[in-house]
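dumping these here so i dont lose them again. two proteins, back to back, each one seq then structure tokens. dont judge the mess
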Amino acid sequence: MQKTAPNETEQQRLTKRKLVKFMEYAIILAVTVVAVIALRNPIHKFPMVFYVLAIALDVIFVCHSTGVFALPRDVWKVMFELIQSCMLPMAMFMIVMYIGCFKKGGKAYTWLKPIRSELSIIAWILSLGHMAVYLNSYIPRILAGANINTNIMSAFVLALILLVLLLVLGVTSFNFLKKRMSTKTWIKIQKWAYPFWALVYVHLMLMLAPSAMRGGQAAIISVAVYTISFGVYAVWRIARAVMDKKAAAEGAT
């Protein structure tokens, strides 16, 4: 009995850590969804207020990360989960992408579609803070010739590609630029959101898979959660495209 008790205790600890990690992501996603629904009208009417708030969060995050000033420990823990772990921009991008899965003309689609661009811009701004800190961390090491494993180097190269796509998609989401582009060109550019989203998943797997394969519990849960989230989106979005195409064909006949 004395030998099994520690094993049981360790198993309980692992289960608790798994549950906590999953709950963190679930809570952030749920709160983000509720906040988006509750703030739909203010976001639609005063998007610049939310852009400024997102920029302010980025500045605070980058300043703390680079040692300009130090945040209180509890505040930094929240900032770490929201921005450094990229959970908040990921949750917002998730909402933006899932909006495209809803039936056109349905209540959810009609309610959220008008703020889709605004949500993507807010998520874009927050993602830039996340990328700035990570690139600032890895670029000096790479330039100095530090020994970096293949997975991390691949993830870094992919991060640069994602940064380029993020800049193009984010900038063209602003209304002032959108109005200066032809509808056809704008749609073509925005379709790059799909490969962007797929590459985000690949990037996450490159960062998380090594730790998950070594038995890292937080990484295993993250891999599972992201795989389910991205997988459900892929299946639902393809199904929506098929249904929309079918409906269009029936309408034409």
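---- next one ----
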Amino acid sequence: MSMYMKQSRDFESESYLSGVVQAMAIEIAIRAQRSAKPKSYGTLYWQFNDAWPAISWAAVDYYGRWKPLQYMAKRMYTNIAVFTLTTSVVVAINDNLYPTDVIVKMANVDFEGNIISKDQKIMTLAADSVATVFNINRASLTDKITKVVTVTEIYHKDSLVMRSTRYYKPYKEL
């Protein structure tokens, strides 16, 4: 293998991973701002597409291909959403202009796949609203907090609308 080919592959990996990090950062902003309704109704990010072939912060490249940010934005901007906030509160969001019946499921799972705790709530979300669904008792997870992820799902009409995960340590410390 030539030196150029190895450098090219490393460059492609770094380029892709920088896009994944960007998408994760935007996910944090979207989660916080959408759940702050009515003070905030979401996030606009700069910029949507590229004007020329380049590595940039755009969500769609010059050729029209989606980057990780665009996939994340599509997932994060569903009309019905569920997020676990940094305060260990699970919120459900309804952007529809009518009340919506949902089922919200939450599970705390360790990195081996064992379910530590789980809960489910059937509820009606008011039109254009944010509702607190669960308060996670972090004290019960304290000794395991570095190896636990909270997985939340929201269902509407028996269909999974969105799945969200929340780690309690920075990704670099997991």
